[in-house]
Specification:
Length: about 210
């Protein structure tokens, strides 16, 4: 596993070296953010997955159980299991939401790099990665619990379980769009915007 991580990380160093060799520091500064963005393709270390995934599973189980109870279902938490009458809904490693969090972090960083927002707004977007990813995972587990309680058909349960997993990213992106929309109306940016053509003439330019 460590070999795959080093292999992917070496590609980033190679791309940075190529940019430096071809265009010197100016090109490296321009290409740096795009190259650094590729860090999201590097697999997470196993120790990190284990140490971070465990508390994420616990948080998802506790929150989903509470939400199911709020919806009127007799949900009981037993470790990382959610018991709904005779239904045993297990929150396993794949359900921790860690991979979703990394993917959502990539989208959030992409939004920060591509949108013209104040540093404060960009910081809030990055700080919102964990809460939004956890919320999305909790909604998925809760929806799965409601679906399992509504039907006992195994085929329908499998289909709905997979469907809720597929919907995680669209829901996460919708929450990201909502976050950007709210921030746009809450945060007032009084800086004077530059001519868009100036972005190609001056690296990192966006405002005067």
């Amino acid at each position: 596993m460590l070999f795959h991580q080093l292999d992917a990380a070496s590609l980033l160093l190679a791309l940075a070296a190529i940019a430096l060799a071809v265009g010197g520091l100016p090109l490296l500064k321009r290409a740096g953010p795009a190259i650094a963005f590729l860090i999201f393709m590097v697999p997470l270390p196993y120790e990190l997955e284990r140490n971070v995934g465990a508390p994420l599973k616990t948080a998802a189980t506790v929150s989903s159980t509470y939400l199911l109870q709020t919806l009127g279902l007799p949900a009981i938490r037993d470790g990382n299991l959610i018991l709904i009458d005779e239904i045993r809904l297990g929150v396993v490693d794949a359900c921790s939401g860690l991979k979703m969090m990394v993917t959502f972090a990539a989208f959030s960083v992409g939004a920060v790099l591509l949108t013209q927002r104040s540093r404060f707004e960009k910081l809030l977007v990055l700080l919102g990665v964990v809460p939004v990813a956890v919320l999305t995972n909790v909604l998925r587990i809760t929806a799965t619990g409601v679906s399992f309680a509504a039907t006992a058909d195994k085929g329908a349960q499998d289909f709905l379980h997979n469907l809720h997993g597929w919907l995680m990213m669209p829901v996460g992106l919708a929450l990201l769009a909502l976050e950007l929309w709210v921030l746009k109306r809450l945060v007032v940016d009084d800086r004077e915007p530059m001519d868009p053509a100036a972005l190609f003439a001056e690296p990192g330019a966006g405002y005067r």
